[in-house]
Amino acid sequence: MYKVPVLSYGDNALPEYAYTDSDILIKPDVQNLDSLNIEWYINDKPYSEYADGKLDNSGGTIRFKKKGHYTVTASITDETGREYRYDAKTDIYSVPQIGFEVPENTHTDINTEIKTNIIEADGLILSGKYQRTMANLKSLQMVRFRTKAAQYGLRTRAVIY
Description:
Low-confidence stretches: 132-161
Shape: rod-shaped
Order of helices and strands: EEEEEEEEEEEEEEE
Radius of gyration: 23 Å
Strand order of the largest sheet: 2-10-9-5-6
Largest sheet: 5 strands, mixed
């Protein structure tokens, strides 16, 4: 008689969402594993196709390479060839990057063009306010960003060229 391997995530469940710059800890609670091994998959492919990091019988830490909807699967095959699969889902979002091209100096009676470069905005609405000193636009400050899915929050990186 063989014991049935059981895996649960309990308090260590995958986050509902994360970002492409986030490390995700996967720490399953495993019972009756004995000498069996856990094979890890993401969207039914070897996990390394979608994420960097290392997963083994005790879990591990991964970082997704691209945004998307993912199902992480722990697969355990016992001595008789029966397969047990345990799934967890997560959504991964990219981190928008915002760049500004501004002149080094300007004057208060000159209209100054500020160019904005946005990467990975995915429908985000950019709203902001620019503050400047009389001769230095480098004090540019973004006030806020809003997303259609505001309940998920938003993380951004801003770069001034």
